[in-house]
Specification:
Blueprint lengths: L2 H11 L2 H10 L8 H16 L3 H8 L3 H13 L4 H8 L3 H13 L3 H11 L4 H11 L1
Amino acid sequence: MKWFEQVQAAEQRGDWDAAIALASAHAECYSTDPSRHNNHLWHMDLLARAERLSELAELAVTDVHARRRLNRALRERGMEAAPRTRAEAGDRDALYVLVRLLCETSRPQEADRAVQDLSPDDQYAHQIVARFRS
């Protein structure tokens, strides 16, 4: 059985430790080898699916893929406070995640207020709110 088949089997069993260890051994952020880069994205996804958000948060300090996957995981879980805190710290992707989350839960006024409070000049954030209002 090849290593990626072992990862897939571990995923199916819910053996996140094994899946994560195997995937991370074949992963490299921004590798010139597309397979290693894809494995890095897979590794980030495994961490999120395993609910290892603290590990993703640690990696997110220096890894854009971890940051994006963390923000998406927070949105998927309907967690509003964490993206807001991350947006307040300057994470623009977290702002977009927060705005989408607020809009998706029928709170476009709160989304607009978040944009005004956190990044009033961010045109993309304004566009997200506008799309949900139309």
